[in-house]
Amino acid sequence: MSDPVIIIGSGVGGYTVAREWRKRDKETALMIISADGAESYSKPMLSNALDKGKPADSLVMADAEKMADNLNADIRSRVRLESINPAQHSVSTTAGEFTYSKLVLSMGANPIRLVFKGNAANEVLSVNNLDDYRLFRDQLQGKKQVTIIGAGLIGCEFANDLCNNDIKVQVIDLSPQPLGRLLPEKMADAVKQSLADLGVCWYLGKSVSEINTHDSGYRLTLDDGSLLDTELILSAVGLQPVTELAATAGFDVQRGIVVNRKLQTSDSDVYALGDCAEVEGLVLPFILPLMNAARTLAANLAGDDVEVSYPAMPVAVKTPAIPLVICPPSAGSQGIWTETDMGVGIQSLCHSPSGDLLGFALSGATVSKKTELAKQIAHWL
Amino acid sequence: MKKWLCVVCGFVYEEAAGLPEEGIAAGTSWDDIPDDWECPDCGVGKADFEMVEV
Q1: Which of A222, A198, A199 is nearest to A211 (CA)?
Q2: Angle at alpha carbon of residue A244, lines to A239 and A247, rounded to 5°
Q3: Are A5-109+240-301 and A113-235 in the same CATH fold?
């Protein structure tokens, strides 16, 4: 029997590749190695499950056993990758060594951990997978106040979700506005106001220097010396692609594991996608680019020779307090924002000096224009 | 009228509301949506949606 295709990671990327590939090839052996429980769950729903009244375990759509059955795959859960040995076509793991015919790296990203002083600096939670989320929901029980460090997409979504459940939320960010890197000023103000109306207390333009235990919770010391007491701290300051083992194995790694548009790494039998991968310079940790990449990768595994294409892909922000869709201009592009209050929401458009649409942000009822506007933007890839 | 939940990204299709901006009129039942239709938020096909009881 020939060696199996091995997929490292059972997140949306790993499982989507497996599912799409199985539509083409039902027989070739497939092994999926997962550091966690290998449950199939909707990751984007981690940041709005509270509001939907869903306990962590209800987000599981299929456990490892059921996925193994669905995908005709050998799924190894709670197994960690230790090294990749491209010369031997093998991977070493906590469950032994396995040889592969093709290898797919879908290892995701780790939350960036800021370094704080204080005796409780290590008690800061971050949520980037179902295990993290179980812990978060467990610790949230009986709590009435949560402090979020980071006012990006995940920070804002969690802030909205927690507020809707009568939990007081404080959000701290170094940037003077929420979603600082993604939104122009007027739209950012609207987001700030909508979440403030819901009860979010903003601490913007500030950073945390120290975290200590205090009473039954924590006391944060901010860089301006002010003190903030809270019961639970959630950090959402960004993601760092998981690249270390790929780099050690000798693959090209920049910010993510470098792949071409066929999703191949510098070793043509090894592919990568999702939050750990960098496709022609782009690291896009969002669901839509991931799905595009997964389909292309699966087709190539099945013997096609196709390249991924990225149209402009808007991101829907799950903040029910202010429906929001963002399609940020590509990094490094020079554009001018025009922001118009349409009555039912704000429409912010970013144009190049020659008048081409580069990106946009829409709030309220104007989000319905997202598809039409996205089509006007040049392909990212 | 039913609601359908995208199990990948959490997008909800409400039959009563339709998706007029995508040419799907309010009141369009799930069965009448073309098979090649994709979730506007994540691009998965109809097969990956799951029905939510309302």
Answers
A1: A222
A2: 125
A3: yes
**Topology of the domain covering A5-109+240-301:** FAD/NAD(P)-binding domain (3.50.50)
Check if the beta carbon of residue A21 is closer than 8 Å to that of residue A72: no
Kindly determine whether residue A368 and residue B20, on different chains, have CB atoms separated by under 8 Å. yes
* Range 315-354 of A in CB contact (< 8 A) with B: 316, 318
Q: Among residues 25-44 of chain B, which lie with CB inside 8 Å of chain A?
A: 40-44
Q: Return the residue in B12, B19, B44 with the most chain A beta carbons within 10 A, the one to mutate for interface testing.
A: B44
In this structure, which topology does domain A323-374 adopt according to CATH? Enolase-like; domain 1 (3.30.390)
ipTM above 0.85, yes or no: no
pTM of this prediction?
0.93
- The CATH code of domain A113-235 reads 3.50.50.60
SS3 A259: strand
Please give the Cα distance from A230 to A114 (Å, whole number). Answer: 18
> Which residues share a beta bridge with A202?
A171
A60 touches chain B (CB under 8 A): no
pLDDT in tens, chain A (381 residues): 689 999 999 999 999 999 999 999 999 999 999 999 999 998 888 998 887 778 899 889 899 999 999 999 999 999 999 999 999 999 999 999 999 999 999 999 999 999 999 999 999 999 999 999 999 999 999 999 999 999 999 999 999 999 999 999 999 999 999 998 899 999 999 999 999 999 999 999 999 999 999 999 999 999 999 999 999 999 999 999 999 999 999 999 999 999 999 999 999 999 999 999 999 999 999 999 999 999 999 999 999 999 999 999 999 999 999 999 999 998 888 899 999 999 999 999 999 999 999 999 999 999 989 989 999 999 999
